């Protein structure tokens, strides 16, 4: 609990800082708080994962600090708007920290060694600070276009042949990074909405996976046959995470697609939409067992556990969120 509170405090320092040096300090506090949370004596891969994570994040932090100091020699340290080249130099370590492609190579292997709770923290909370800093200086240029396209392409193709659910969610996260960077072009509110919905959907999936104790795709076929409702909730949550209408995950993608079309970015949005179909394919592969309901089995009679109540609530939100949002928008 201590390390979690310092992790959040580091995040808040970064967000509220008015200088790059203060933001860097917040990132370091955040990093050093997460390393102890990663340690787990029951998992032999945890040490390797935490070491990899520390080295990569330390490299990104050192690079960022070097650029900040170099920047302060020619500009004020409190400046957000810089030259085009300086912006790219600052964005690169921040993109490395957030796991955007093509700077994503550390992400899948680190995720593979973490518990599901830490996976959730790494995929969501740990991305808030670098994404917030990225949003301060983002503008549509060739560099950002390459990052967006690389993220959606690698996120889609990378997860295509995976059997580990952790790696599938990792590549899904990389794919969503491309969409989030695109959402930043629309303004702060839009990418925050996207990130909030992505976090809710990720929490939904993980809250279903933890009680089921599954880590690989083939284990979904071996889930308790009486637990058809949990299989169905996993199925709908993953499709929502993939952005399939009429689920909640489609809402931010819908708005982004409309924005990109209105701004004549047809090529980028076409690639993003096509590759979203690939991500939906590997989500469907995980949930294939949800379709297999034999008539001889006691299908829907199931005693709920307290740990699964959260999953039910979040899944209901995921299934009805788009409808509720549309009704609210039309009402106002």
Automatic annotation (TrEMBL):
Key words of the record: Electron transport, Membrane, Mitochondrion, Mitochondrion inner membrane, NAD, Respiratory chain, Translocase, Transmembrane, Transmembrane helix, Transport, Ubiquinone
Protein name: NADH-ubiquinone oxidoreductase chain 2
The keyword Membrane is annotated on this UniProt entry: yes
Molecular-function annotations in GO: NADH dehydrogenase (ubiquinone) activity
Pfam families: Proton_antipo_M
EC class name: translocase
Upper taxonomic lineage: Eukaryota, Metazoa, Ecdysozoa, Arthropoda, Hexapoda
Compartments it resides in: Mitochondrion inner membrane
GO CC terms, sorted: mitochondrial inner membrane
Record domain NADH:quinone oxidoreductase/Mrp antiporter transmembrane: where: 17-279
Bilayer-spanning residue ranges: 53-74, 86-107, 133-156, 191-211, 232-252, 264-284, 310-329
EC number per UniProt: 7.1.1.2
Family from the record: Belongs to the complex I subunit 2 family.
Bilayer disposition of the protein: Multi-pass membrane protein
Gene from which this protein is expressed: nad2
Record GO biological process: mitochondrial electron transport, NADH to ubiquinone
Protein task: Core subunit of the mitochondrial membrane respiratory chain NADH dehydrogenase (Complex I) which catalyzes electron transfer from NADH through the respiratory chain, using ubiquinone as an electron acceptor. Essential for the catalytic activity and assembly of complex I. Core subunit of the mitochondrial membrane respiratory chain NADH dehydrogenase (Complex I) that is believed to belong to the minimal assembly required for catalysis. Complex I functions in the transfer of electrons from NADH to the respiratory chain. The immediate electron acceptor for the enzyme is believed to be ubiquinone.
Domain of life: Eukaryota
Catalytic activity: a ubiquinone + NADH + 5 H(+)(in) = a ubiquinol + NAD(+) + 4 H(+)(out)
